[in-house]
Amino acid sequence: MAAPGTFYPVEIQRDYQGKMRVLWDDGHECLYPYDNLRKVCPCATCRDLRAQQHQAPANPFQVVTTVTTQEVHPVHLSPVGNYALHIEWSDGHRTGIYPWDMLRNLCPELRPVTPSATP
């Protein structure tokens, strides 16, 4: 029996209109843009890189050493036990394990929408 507030995917599509689609056991459907998922990879290496970027002093002059037009996308998805999804990315990154609760919290369709200012 699932703990209250715990949701599990019943269907995952790797390529659904250029996004990853997850249908949850409560009927909610979430569409995750690939670049958003890749940017929040929870692996230790990616967490360390994000932390270093936030700690580094601001440099007003930055030299771009590489330019890529390649869009990252998942090449393989596999479940990890009953708690997460392992995603292998087209950029070669293979250590991202995304827990179900993290994916659920990242769902764009379930986030509160900020009301737009009316004139």
UniProtKB/TrEMBL annotation:
Ranges for domain Gamma-butyrobetaine hydroxylase-like N-terminal: 17-104
Keywords linked to the UniProt accession: Iron, Metal-binding
Record carries keyword Iron: yes
Pfam families assigned to the protein according to its UniProt record, in alphabetical order: GBBH-like_N
A GO MF term: metal ion binding
Keyword Iron: yes
Protein name: DUF971 domain-containing protein
Source organism of this protein record: Tectimicrobiota bacterium
